[in-house]
Amino acid sequence: MARTRSNEVHQRMVQAALRLFAERGFESTSMDAIAREAGVAKPTLYNHWADKEALMMEVMLYVNGVSDERREYDSGDVVEDLTWILTRRPPDAFEELRSRMMPGLVAYSATHPEFGAAWRHNIMEPARKAIANALKRGIERGQLSSGLDIDVSICLLLGPMLYRHIFHGKAKIDIEELGREAAEAFGRAFI
To answer: Are residues 91 and 184 in the same domain?
Structure first.
């Protein structure tokens, strides 16, 4: 499928916003600056996004590799399914930019509750839901106890991943290794 001029302009604006957000932060980046960086008129930005927060959300979804096509993974084995979910990585191409933007995103989310809620809904909720679905399938198949507390289980599984994310500079554990080990430890404890 050929890319239309509108798609090319859209991508150019996303890339410009990504560069400026990583360089200046969210609060210090204006729509005027993004338009200048992308080489478009400011109204063009507003033809694509209602406001800066909508553009910020698209940029964050983009650098985290989140698309509208979220697929469920069902191998038939709950530990394998959990491993697949926990070891999902965003695109490596954006690792540096993502790490530069994340502290600002956390701060912005704390001071802008609507944006924070949208961030949790779009980024965090799909992973939480995928884990819940994998656990429910494990219960239905008799791999897990019917009395398993899904919410506590999600906390147990996501806790190590969040710890690694927060302390990534100090935790030398690879995300694939940690995800696999967390899923296997959960399996040993609850299967």
So the answer is: yes
